[in-house]
């Protein structure tokens, strides 16, 4: 059978909700589906880091260019 899911309520600013709604619309997702994806990804990142303090201090690597070079792309 399928996985059971439960509701989750979050308090966020109006500006953040508008931002997330715009992203969801751009990706043709519902706000709930986008929130589910973000929570799942964030929980995995937090689990790997071990604590919120370590997670927030961790540097995010620069995106890799298609040629494999880590230098920043010119905009």
Write a structural description:
- With 75 residues, the protein is mainly alpha-helical.
- The protein has three helices and no strands.
- Helix 1 crosses helix 2.
- It is extended and about 40 Å long.
- The relative contact order is 0.08.
Biggest sheet features: none
Cα gyration radius (Å): 16 Å
Secondary-structure class: mainly alpha
List SSEs in N-to-C order. Answer: HHH
Number of contiguous helices: 3
- Percentage of residues in strands: under 5%
Chain-wise SSE layout:
Blueprint lengths: L13 H13 L4 H19 L2 H6 L18
Main attributes of the structure:
mainly alpha, 75 residues, 3 helices
Quick overview of this protein structure:
This protein is mainly alpha-helical and 75 residues long. The protein has helices spanning 14-26, 31-49, 52-57.
């Amino acid at each position: 059978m399928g996985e059971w899911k439960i509701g989750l309520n979050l308090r966020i600013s109006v500006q953040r909700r508008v931002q997330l709604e715009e992203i969801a619309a751009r990706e043709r997702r519902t706000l709930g589906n986008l929130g589910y994806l973000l929570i799942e990804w964030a929980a995995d990142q937090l689990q790997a880091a071990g604590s919120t303090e370590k997670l927030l201090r961790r540097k995010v690597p620069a995106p890799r260019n298609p040629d494999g070079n880590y230098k920043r792309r010119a905009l």
